[in-house]
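cron nightly-structures :: item 1 of 1
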Amino acid sequence: MAGIAGCWQGLPVGQEVPPPSGNVHTAFVMNLLWDNREQDKVLSLIARHDPDIVLLSEVSRHWSANLAKLETLYPFHYHCAEWRSLGGNVILSRMKLKKAGFCGPYASLGLATFEMDGFDIDVGVVHLRWPWPASGPRQITAITPKLQQTGPDALIAGDFNSVTWSHSLQRFAQAGNLEIVGGIGATWGPGHHARDRSYWFPAVLGLPIDNVMA
């Protein structure tokens, strides 16, 4: 099938991944931050990368106007809302939506099937709660039956609120028979958050809580 390359805000470390053969499609993954005051910068970032699939979490009502703009560029979309029609996660795609049938508790996982170069691919966007003292592990338990039904071609990414080497991430990957993509680098820590930009924080000391699986 076609290869999928990722683009995300982070600090890549580790080995280079060899370019895939065949057609290459890109995915952009981001936790928007529900009250983000720099939405224009986010739109510019997405436009610069020009991805085929966009996976967004913390899509609050503050993002309604700009989300509508993105939907004009990406005709196929699936909204996994956290409260009725508000909040949660969104998948935007240029690929045809085949099936949008699952939204986990409190928008922990939004999962949809898209057609890509003649293949069906399951695409998921994740936003789990903290492993402790919040309910992240219980969310994984709740969505495990659905993860076990994931097809052989899948891309699942987002804000797991757990580091790459954690038990929670291993549980999630094993449930869906997925492989964790390494080398993304730190995505959380002072300096990574919009409100923390006055602080300098070595990237090597940050935590990789945003992850990708395939």
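cron nightly-structures :: done
Helices lie at 39-49, 64-73, 136-147, 167-175.
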